[in-house]
User: Fold FoF1-type ATP synthase assembly protein I from Arthrobacter cupressi.
Amino acid sequence: MAKPERHPRKTIPAASGPTNSAEEAKDGKDAGYNAGMAVFSYIIGGIIVWSLIGWGLDYLWGTRWIVLLGALLGAAGGFYLSHMHGLTRQGSSSGGSAADRGPSQDGAQ
Assistant:
């Protein structure tokens, strides 16, 4: 028996990315929205998890205040995580700080 011939597979060229500025602007808006949702998730998730831990400790030890401490610790931890991931920095429309942009262009020194 003769083996059938194998044809090489056709390769599909990779997409080159967004083709117009409207799609790029949409990506910028989505990035801000996604960062905001990540910050929200970190803070709310921290509050929920650490409140449950505090509630469990309150139940074991017969206290009533550790759940509040857990909620505060969770909020602070969530904000800390979002800050460490670079999600809480303030952006500027021109990019970079004023020192990075150089002297002003109005003639003032």
Observations:
- The radius of gyration is 26 Å.
- The chain is about 60% helix and 0% strand.
- Residues 29-88 form one domain.
- The first helix runs from residue 21 to 61.
